[in-house]
Write a structure and sequence with these properties.
19 strands, 26 helices, 4-stranded mixed beta sheet, 702 residues, alpha+beta, single chain, Alpha-Beta Plaits, 45% helix, Dipeptidyl-peptase3, zinc, Dipeptidyl peptidase 3
C-alpha cells in the first residue's frame, strides 16, 4: 500500500465529533419489578457485561488495551477531566476530542464501528494522546501496547474488518495473518462434517496445522462434557486440534452469575435455560447452548426477558462464528398487546404476499412477539429488533422469538438533523417516524423472517413438496426445477449474500404489508379502511419515506476501494430505494438543484404508494422469495448484485453528499445494577461521554 492515505479518505475514519450520546432510560420499568425479579435481572445483567472483554477481543488485537487505558485514565483522575487537562498540559478541546473517541469506542466495544465494520480513529494528535498517557505509570504501560495500532497507519485494508487473506482485520483468526480463505473454509467444512457447531470458536493457524479455540471456563472438559469425544484429527497432513478455555476467566464469571440468577428464576423453563447456559459456558458445549435456546423459546411472555451467548455471525468474515452478546429487558405490556394482535392475525395476512401456499410453511409458527425496554445490552451495538434463535431446526420445530426494543427505538438526541427529507414532509416525518418504524420492525421481524418455506429434499428421495407434481413458479409459470439437496442449508447455499438478501426479503415484506390498513389499525392508526389522507396514511407514507431515506443514507456503508457493502441491512435498503425509483418518476425521484447535491432530497408521492409503490415492491419481493425458496442462488445473486451495484452517479455524486451529512450513530449510556443492603438498586449515569466512561468503570467484574 502507499505510505499515505489522502486527507479526504482519512476524514471518513475520524471519530464522530461529537458522538450522539443518548440515555437508555429504564427506571420506571425496573422499579415495577418484584425483589425476586430484580435479583434475577441483576445477575443476568452482570453475566452479559462480564463478556465485554470477549467482544473487545473479537473486534481487534488492540481493542482490549484501549479499553484498559480509558478505564485506567478515568480512575487516575477520578473523572475530573479539567484537572487532567492541566496535568497533561492540554487544551479543553483536546480533552474533548479524547472523550469523544472514548465514548464512541465504548459504545462500539472496540475501535471498529459495529455498524459498517470500518475503523475509527481519535481526532487527537498522537503527541497529545501520549501526553495523556504519561500522567501515570499504569496508563503509560498500557499505551505502549496499542500506540501503533490506534491510528490509521499506511494500509487501507487494515481499516476494515474482513478476511486476513484479503488484507483486512479479523480476530476470529487470531495471530494468523497468512491464513487463506481456502484454509478457513477447509477447517470449517471439516468440523461441520464432524458435527461441531462453530459459533463459540476462533481458528488459529499454527506451524503444523490449526487450533480451534473454544470459549469455555474449563481448560480441559472431559470427553463426556464435550460435544465431540475426539479433539484432534488430521486434515490434508495438517493437525486440527480443539483447544478449550478461550476467554476462560470471562466464561467463569458469566457461568457463576448465571448460576446465581437460577436461584431467582420465575419458572421451570428459566431454570432449565440457566442450567444449560451454565453447562455451555463452563464446558464449551454448543449442544447445551441449543437446549438453552429451546427452553428460552418456550418461556413465553416473562416479565424479565433475556438471551445471552455467541449469537450473531455478521462480523466473522466467514459468516459462521458468533459475537458475544447478551441482553436483559423488561416487557412493555401496552405495546406488546399490539404485537400480539399482529401475531394472531398473521395467517390472514401472509396469503396477501406475492406467492401461493406451495412456497409457504404449512402452518405459521406463531412466535412470541414482545416489546421490551432494555436494561442491559452487552455487545458491539444495539439493534432495534431481534429475531432469534438463528438455529433453523429450533425455529422450525420449537419456534422463535421476536422482540422490538422500545427504548432503543424512541431514544432521541436533542435537535437531531434529518437530511434528505423535503421541507413539506418534515413535520409529518418527525411526528410519525417512531410509530412507522415500530410497524416496520414488527412486520419485518414477525412476518418477514417468519414467513416462507424452503423447498427441500430433506434426505435422499424424501421431499417436503410433491416431487411428482412440483409447485409452479410464479416467475416462469412452469414447474420448479431447483430445490435444496440433502445437507444443503439456506446459509451454505447462499453464502456471503445470505444475510443481506434475507434482511432485504424481510424489509420488503414489511413494505408490502404496511399498505394493509387493518394492520395499521392494530397499531392504533385509522379505522382499517384504505385512506391515504388519514392518520394511518401518514404512518404508511412515513414508513415508505423512511425506507427511501435509509436507502440514500446507506451509501455511507459502501466502500469504493473494495466496492463492497459493509452492512447487510444497508445494502438491502439501497436496493429497495432503487426499486422505488424504478417504479417511475410519478412515484419517487431524487431531486436537487445544486451541483454538489448538497440540497439532495427524495420526493415520494403519498397518493401513488398503493398503485405504484406496492406493486413495484411486490414484484421485487416475489423474485427474492422464489429464488430463496428454490435454492436458485445463480439467479438470486445476478439480480441482487445488479440492483445493489453502486453506479457512477451514486458513487461520485450521491455518496459524497451523504458523507457530508452523515449523522453519528447513537451511543447508549446504560445503567448498572448493584446489590446494596440485601436489595438490588439501579444506578443511572448522565448521557455524556464522561457518563459513558463512568458506567463502564463501575463494572468491576469486567
Amino acid at each position: 500500500m502507499s505510505a499515505s492515505i489522502d486527507s479526504e479518505t482519512l476524514k471518513q475514519y475520524l471519530a464522530d465529533s461529537p458522538p450522539t450520546v443518548v440515555p437508555l432510560t429504564i427506571k420506571p420499568h425496573f422499579d415495577a419489578l418484584t425483589d425476586q425479579e430484580k435479583r434475577y435481572a441483576h445477575h443476568l445483567s452482570v453475566a452479559c457485561f462480564a463478556g465485554t472483554r470477549i467482544v473487545l477481543r473479537q473486534v481487534s488485537p488492540e481493542s482490549e488495551h484501549i479499553y484498559d487505558f480509558i478505564v485506567a485514565l478515568h480512575k487516575h483522575t477520578s473523572g475530573d477531566y479539567a484537572a487532567l487537562a492541566k496535568e497533561a498540559g492540554l487544551l479543553q478541546s483536546e480533552i474533548d476530542a479524547y472523550l469523544d473517541y472514548a465514548a464512541q469506542f465504548l459504545g462500539n466495544l472496540g475501535n471498529f464501528k459495529s455498524f459498517g465494520d470500518s475503523k475509527f480513529v481519535p481526532r487527537l494528535e498522537p503527541r497529545h494522546l501520549k501526553a495523556l498517557a504519561t500522567v501515570s505509570k499504569d496508563t503509560l504501560a498500557i499505551y505502549e501496547k496499542f500506540k501503533d495500532a490506534i491510528y490509521v497507519g499506511s494500509d487501507v485494508g487494515k481499516l476494515h474488518l474482513g478476511y486476513p487473506g484479503a488484507g483486512h482485520v479479523s480476530t476470529y483468526y487470531p495471530d494468523s495473518p497468512d491464513i487463506t480463505n481456502g484454509e478457513i473454509s477447509a477447517v470449517s467444512d471439516f468440523l461441520e462434517g464432524k458435527g461441531l457447531l462453530p459459533e463459540n470458536t476462533r481458528v488459529r493457524k499454527t506451524s503444523d496445522g490449526y487450533e480451534v479455540l473454544i470459549a469455555s471456563a474449563l481448560g480441559s472438559p472431559s470427553s463426556e462434557q464435550r460435544d465431540l469425544k475426539d479433539s484432534e484429527w488430521t486434515l490434508d497432513n495438517k493437525k486440527v486440534k480443539l483447544v478449550f478455555g478461550d476467554h476462560s476467566k470471562e466464561m467463569d464469571t458469566i457461568a457463576h452469575h448465571i448460576e446465581q440468577a437460577k436461584k431467582y428464576a420465575a419458572n421451570d423453563h428459566e431454570i432449565q435455560m440457566m442450567e444449560q447456559y451454565s453447562k455451555s459456558f463452563r464446558t464449551g458445549s454448543l449442544q447445551a447452548f441449543k437446549k438453552s435456546q429451546m427452553a428460552w423459546v418456550q418461556d413465553k411472555g416473562p416479565n424479565v426477558e433475556s438471551d445471552i451467548g455467541f449469537i450473531e455471525t455478521y462480523r466473522d468474515p466467514h459468516g459462521i462464528r458468533g459475537e458475544w452478546e447478551g441482553f436483559v429487558a423488561m416487557v412493555n405490556k401496552e405495546r406488546t398487546k399490539a404485537f400480539g394482535k399482529l401475531v394472531e392475525s398473521a395467517p390472514q395476512y401472509i396469503p396477501l404476499l406475492p406467492w401461493d401456499k406451495s412456497f409457504e410453511k404449512d402452518k405459521f409458527l406463531s412466535p412470541d412477539f414482545t416489546s421490551l425496554e432494555v436494561l442491559t445490552f452487552a455487545g458491539s451495538g444495539i439493534p432495534a429488533g431481534i429475531n432469534i434463535p438463528n438455529y433453523d431446526d429450533i425455529r422450525q420445530n420449537f419456534g422463535f422469538k421476536n422482540v422490538s426494543l422500545g427504548n432503543i427505538l424512541s431514544a432521541k438526541a436533542p435537535n437531531e438533523s434529518i437530511p434528505f427529507i423535503k421541507e413539506r414532509d418534515l413535520a409529518t416525518y418527525q411526528k410519525y417516524r417512531d410509530p412507522a418504524f415500530e410497524v416496520q420492525v414488527g412486520l419485518h421481524e414477525l412476518l418477514g423472517h417468519g414467513c416462507g418455506k424452503l423447498l427441500q429434499e430433506t434426505e435422499p428421495g424424501v421431499f417436503n413438496f410433491n416431487k411428482e407434481n412440483p409447485p409452479i413458479s410464479p416467475l416462469t409459470g412452469k414447474p420448479i426445477t431447483n430445490w435444496y439437496k440433502p445437507g444443503q442449508t439456506w446459509g451454505s447455499t447462499f453464502g456471503t449474500i445470505a444475510a443481506s438478501y434475507e434482511e432485504c426479503r424481510a424489509e420488503c415484506v414489511a413494505m408490502a404489508l404496511s399498505c394493509e390498513f387493518p394492520i395499521l389499525q392494530l397499531f392504533g392508526f385509522g379505522e382499517g379502511k384504505a385512506d391515504m389522507s388519514s392518520e394511518a396514511g401518514d404512518v404508511l407514507f412515513t414508513a415508505y419515506l423512511q425506507m427511501a431515506r435509509a436507502g440514500i443514507a446507506a451509501l455511507e456503508f459502501w466502500d469504493p476501494k473494495s466496492r463492497k457493502w459493509g452492512q447487510a441491512h444497508m445494502q438491502a435498503r439501497f436496493s429497495i430505494l432503487r426499486t422505488f425509483l424504478n417504479a417511475g418518476v410519478e412515484f419517487c425521484q431524487l431531486e436537487w438543484e445544486k451541483d454538489d447535491l448538497s440540497d439532495l432530497t427524495v420526493r415520494l408521492e403519498r397518493d401513488r404508494i398503493l398503485d405504484l409503490g406496492r406493486p413495484a415492491v411486490n414484484a421485487y419481493l416475489q423474485k427474492l422469495h422464489i429464488y430463496k425458496a428454490t435454492a436458485d442462488v445463480t439467479a438470486a445473486k445476478r439480480m441482487y448484485d445488479d440492483i445493489t451495484d453502486v453506479e457512477p452517479f451514486y458513487e461520485n455524486m450521491v455518496r459524497p453528499a451523504v458523507l457530508k451529512k452523515k449523522v453519528p450513530r447513537k451511543i447508549f449510556v446504560q445503567a448498572n445494577t448493584v446489590e446494596k443492603d440485601g436489595k438490588v438498586e439501579l444506578v443511572e449515569y448522565e448521557a455524556t461521554s464522561r457518563g459513558m466512561i463512568q458506567s463502564c468503570v463501575e463494572r468491576p467484574f469486567v
